[in-house]
Recover the amino acids of this structure.
C-alpha cells in the first residue's frame, strides 16, 4: 500500500525525460563550451560595431591632413592614418568588407561544394571517380599563388562578369578555389549515411534519389557541414586579408583589414598603431570564429561524425 | 591526376595575357600587322591539342614555321615544361628555370630550419598535453594553440619586427636587437652567428601557425592511441610508464602526423610568400611576389607548375609513407 501511494506521487516528468527540441539541446551543449560563448559574444560585438560604422563622426575616405598620423587618443581611439583619417572608422568599415567577403566565400563554397559532394557520395561509381579526381587536382593547386596570378591577370585584361577590384569578385574567386574541402566532407557524410537504415526505409517506401538526398541525408549530416562552414569563415577572412595585405585583394581607398595592414607597412616603426589595430581585429575575429566552430562541433556533432569521417 | 592538373594549368596559361608562348615573345605589345605571322611562328594557329602537347613536351621533334611565312622548314627550339623549359622571364630575359633555381635553395634553407624547429617544439607540447590531459599545461597549450592558429602570419611578422627590430635594443652595442631582414649582413663576413641572428625572426614568424596546428593534432592523435588495448597490454607487462608512452604510444601517434606533414609540406612554399616579403628573404615566394607585381607571367607560371608538381609528389609520398608505417592500410 505504501509503495503504491509512493508510486502515485511520482510525476510524469520523472518518468519521461523532459521533452526538448533539437535547437534547445544544441544551445544547451553550446552554452557549456565557455570559449565558444565568449567567442560568440566577441564576434557579435565586432559584427555589430562594423554594421554601426556609419554612425562614426568621421568619414572613412575623406582626408584631413591637419590631423595626420596622430597616436591613439580619446578623439581617435585607434589614431589616424597618413591622410588624417580616423583609424577606428576605417577599421570598422574595413571590417564590413572583410566580414562580408568571409561570409560570401562560405556561401559560395557551400553552393558548389554541397551539390558536388552529394552527387559524388550518393551516386558513387564513375561519377564519384571523376569528381574526386577533379577535387584532388584542384586541391593540388597552391591557392594563394593562383589568387595572386588571377588578380594580376584581372588588372590587365577584362574577364566577363568579373569586375576588377569588386568585393564580390574577390569573394567569388576565393570561393571558386576553396569549395573542395566542403565537397569532400559532404561526400564522406553521404558515404557514411547512405548505408543507414532510415535511408533504406525511405527507399523502400519509394522515395526518389533527390528526395532521399534532400530530406533524409542532408538534414542528418547538417551538423558537420555547419561546423566546417563556420571554420571556413575564419579561413576565408584570413585568405582575403592575406591577399589584400600583399596588395592583390581589395584595393584602397576601400579599406579592408588586409590592405590597412599593407599600407601600415611603411609606417610600421614610427606609427605602429596603424598596424596593430587592424591585425588585432583579424585575430579576434578568427579566434572567435574558431572557438564558435569548436563549440558547435561539440553541440551539433555529439556522435563525433566528423571524427569518423576523417578516417573514411 | 597529373594529366588533369596539367590541363588546368594549361588553361590558366591560356588566359594569361600572351598565352602559352608568353615567355617567348620579345615584345609584350605586338604590332597588329604581325599578329598572323607571329601566330604561325609561335604555333598558335595549331589546334589546342597540338599546342598543349608542344607546351608539355616541346617542339624540337617536329618541323615548325620558324619565320612565320607559312612553310614549315626547321625543327623547333622549345623543349617543353616536362624537360624544364618554362620560357624566359620578361624582366631580365633569363630562362625561368634558372631564375627559380637561384632562389629555390634560399627557400629550402629557411623552410627546413623552420620545420625542424616546428617539430622540436610541437612534438613535446603535443605529448605532454595528451598525457596530462585537462591539466594546467594542457589548458595553456590548447589556448595558445587556438591563438596561434588565429594570428595572421603577416601581422605576426610585422609585430615581431616592431618589437625586436624597432623597440628592443641590444644592450651591448645600442643597435637593434635583431636585424630587420635579409639572409646575412651585407658587406660583413657571413659568420654563423650572423646567419642565426637573421634566421630568428623569420623562423619564429613561420613556425607559430604550424606549431599550433601540429601540437593540437598530435595531442588528439596521442589521446586516440592511449586508450588502445596494446597500451594497456604494455602497462600490464609492467613496462615503465615513460617507455609505454614514448615507445608504444608515440610511435603510433606519429603515423598520421607523418602523413599530414607530407601533405602540408608543399604549402611551405606558398606560405613562404609572407615571410620572404616581410623579412626581404631572397627566395621563391619573394620571386613570385615580385613577378606578380611586375606581371612577369612566365616566372609566375613556372613557380606555379613546380609547386603543383611538388604538391602531387608529396601526396604520393604521403600515401606511400602511410602504407609503409601502417601495414594495415592497403591501396588497391
Amino acid at each position: 500500500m505504501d509503495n503504491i501511494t509512493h508510486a502515485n506521487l511520482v510525476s510524469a516528468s520523472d518518468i519521461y525525460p523532459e521533452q526538448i527540441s533539437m535547437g534547445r539541446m544544441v544551445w544547451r551543449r553550446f552554452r557549456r563550451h565557455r570559449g565558444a560563448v565568449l567567442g560568440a559574444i566577441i564576434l557579435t560585438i565586432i559584427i555589430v560595431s562594423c554594421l554601426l560604422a556609419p554612425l562614426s563622426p568621421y568619414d572613412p575616405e575623406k582626408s584631413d591632413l591637419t590631423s595626420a598620423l596622430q597616436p591613439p587618443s580619446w578623439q581617435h581611439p585607434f589614431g589616424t592614418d597618413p591622410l588624417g583619417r580616423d583609424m577606428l572608422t576605417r577599421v570598422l568599415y574595413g571590417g564590413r568588407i572583410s566580414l562580408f567577403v568571409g561570409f560570401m566565400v562560405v556561401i559560395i563554397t557551400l553552393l558548389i561544394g554541397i551539390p558536388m559532394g552529394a552527387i559524388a557520395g550518393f551516386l558513387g561509381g564513375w561519377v564519384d571517380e571523376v569528381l574526386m579526381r577533379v577535387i584532388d587536382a584542384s586541391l593540388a593547386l597552391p591557392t594563394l599563388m593562383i589568387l595572386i596570378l588571377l588578380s594580376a591577370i584581372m588588372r590587365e585584361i577584362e574577364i566577363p562578369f568579373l569586375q576588377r577590384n569588386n568585393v564580390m569578385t574577390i569573394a567569388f574567386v576565393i570561393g571558386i578555389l576553396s569549395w573542395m574541402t566542403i565537397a569532400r566532407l559532404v561526400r564522406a557524410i553521404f558515404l557514411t549515411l547512405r548505408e543507414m537504415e532510415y535511408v533504406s526505409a525511405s527507399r523502400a517506401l519509394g522515395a526518389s534519389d533527390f528526395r532521399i538526398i534532400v530530406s533524409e541525408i542532408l538534414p542528418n549530416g547538417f551538423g558537420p557541414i555547419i561546423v566546417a562552414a563556420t571554420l571556413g569563415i575564419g579561413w576565408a577572412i584570413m585568405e582575403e586579408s592575406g591577399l589584400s595585405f600583399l596588395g592583390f585583394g581589395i584595393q584602397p581607398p576601400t579599406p579592408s583589414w588586409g590592405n590597412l595592414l599593407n599600407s601600415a607597412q611603411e609606417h610600421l616603426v614610427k606609427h605602429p598603431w596603424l598596424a596593430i589595430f587592424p591585425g588585432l581585429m583579424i585575430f579576434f575575429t578568427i579566434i572567435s570564429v574558431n572557438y564558435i566552430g569548436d563549440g558547435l562541433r561539440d553541440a551539433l556533432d555529439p556522435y563525433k561524425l566528423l571524427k569518423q569521417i576523417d578516417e573514411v | 591526376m597529373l594529366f588533369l592538373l596539367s590541363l588546368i594549368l594549361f588553361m590558366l596559361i591560356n588566359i594569361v595575357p600572351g598565352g602559352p608562348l608568353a615567355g617567348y615573345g620579345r615584345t609584350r605589345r605586338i604590332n597588329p600587322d604581325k599578329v598572323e605571322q607571329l601566330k604561325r611562328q609561335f604555333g598558335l594557329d595549331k589546334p589546342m591539342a597540338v599546342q598543349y602537347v608542344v607546351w608539355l613536351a616541346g617542339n624540337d621533334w617536329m618541323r615548325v614555321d620558324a619565320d612565320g611565312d607559312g612553310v614549315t622548314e626547321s625543327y623547333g627550339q622549345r623543349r617543353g615544361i616536362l624537360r624544364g623549359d618554362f620560357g624566359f622571364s620578361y624582366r631580365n630575359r633569363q630562362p625561368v628555370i634558372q631564375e627559380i633555381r637561384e632562389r629555390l635553395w634560399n627557400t629550402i634553407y629557411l623552410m627546413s630550419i623552420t620545420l625542424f624547429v616546428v617539430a622540436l617544439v610541437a612534438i613535446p607540447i603535443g605529448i605532454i598535453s595528451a598525457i596530462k590531459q585537462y591539466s594546467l599545461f594542457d589548458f595553456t597549450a590548447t589556448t595558445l594553440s587556438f591563438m596561434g592558429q588565429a594570428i595572421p602570419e603577416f601581422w605576426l611578422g610585422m609585430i615581431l619586427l616592431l618589437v625586436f627590430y624597432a623597440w628592443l635594443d641590444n644592450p651591448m652595442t645600442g643597435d637593434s636587437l635583431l636585424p630587420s631582414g635579409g639572409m646575412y649582413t651585407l658587406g660583413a663576413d657571413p659568420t654563423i652567428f650572423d646567419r642565426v641572428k637573421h634566421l630568428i625572426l623569420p623562423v619564429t614568424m613561420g613556425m607559430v601557425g604550424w606549431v599550433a596546428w601540429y601540437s593540437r593534432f598530435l595531442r588528439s592523435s596521442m589521446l586516440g592511441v592511449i586508450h588502445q588495448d596494446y597500451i594497456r597490454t604494455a602497462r600490464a607487462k609492467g613496462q615503465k610508464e615513460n617507455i609505454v608512452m614514448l615507445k608504444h604510444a608515440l610511435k603510433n601517434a606519429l603515423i598520421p602526423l607523418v602523413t599530414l606533414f607530407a601533405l602540408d609540406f608543399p604549402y611551405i612554399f606558398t606560405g613562404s610568400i609572407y615571410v620572404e616579403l616581410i623579412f626581404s628573404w631572397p627566395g621563391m615566394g619573394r620571386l613570385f611576389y615580385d613577378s606578380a607585381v611586375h606581371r612577369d607571367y612566365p616566372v609566375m607560371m613556372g613557380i606555379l607548375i613546380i609547386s603543383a608538381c611538388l604538391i602531387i609528389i608529396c601526396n604520393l609520398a604521403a600515401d606511400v609513407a602511410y602504407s609503409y608505417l601502417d601495414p594495415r592500410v592497403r591501396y588497391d
Remarks:
- Chain B touches chain A through 46 residues (CB under 8 Å).
- Residues 2-83 of chain B form one domain.
- Chain B has two domains: 2-83, 102-325.
- The mean pLDDT of chain B is 78.
